[in-house]
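Shipment paperwork, digital attachment
Item: protein structure file
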Amino acid sequence: MIRNIVVIDDEIEYLNLITEFSAISSLHAACFSEWSSEILAQLKNDTLVFLDINMPKKDGIDALVVLSEYGYSGGIVLLSGAEESVLTSVQKLGESLNLNMFGSLPKPFSLQKLESIIHRFSTSQQPAKSSQSSNTNLSFDLDKIKHYVAEGVETIKQLNLIKELNCNLVQGYIYSRPLLFPEFSDFLNSFNV
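Attachment content:
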C-alpha cells in the first residue's frame, strides 16, 4: 500500500499541487526542487517517486541511474512537458535499468490522471490474495485545490484542460504577453474592469 510520495521537480507549482493532493489523500509527501542525496533516505518500497526529467544540475535521466544503482524498488512516474516520444524513451531507459516505471504525467496534467496513477501503484502494492481494503483515501475534492493559478497557458488545448479541472485562474500568452503596470492598466480598462 502506498504511504509516501517523493516529488522531484524544479517547478514549484507542480510540487505544491502534488503535495496538496497527497495531503488530501492522507499520504506523506517529501518535495525536492533538485536532486539531493537526502532523497535516498526518503525511499521505501511503498514510495511513489514523481520525477521531472528536465531539471538543472542533475536531470531526471541522471536520477534514474542513481535510483537504479541504489536498488530502489518502489514506483517512478515521469513528469515533463516534453514530447511523448521523449517520455517514451526515458520510460524505456528506466525499464532497462530494472526500475518500476509507472508511466508519465505530461505537463500540464489532470488531477484525475494523478489520482489514477497513485491508485494503480497502491493496488499493485497489495498482496495478490489479500482481502483487506486499503485505508488510504485516494478520493479528493477539487474545490479544495481550485485556488491554484494555471501558469504558462499558451494554447486553446491547454486552456480547455485547465477549464476541465475547474481552475478559474489562468495566466499566460493565451491572454497577453507580460506587461508593465501602465500597459496592464490599459489592458484591464479595455475590458471595462
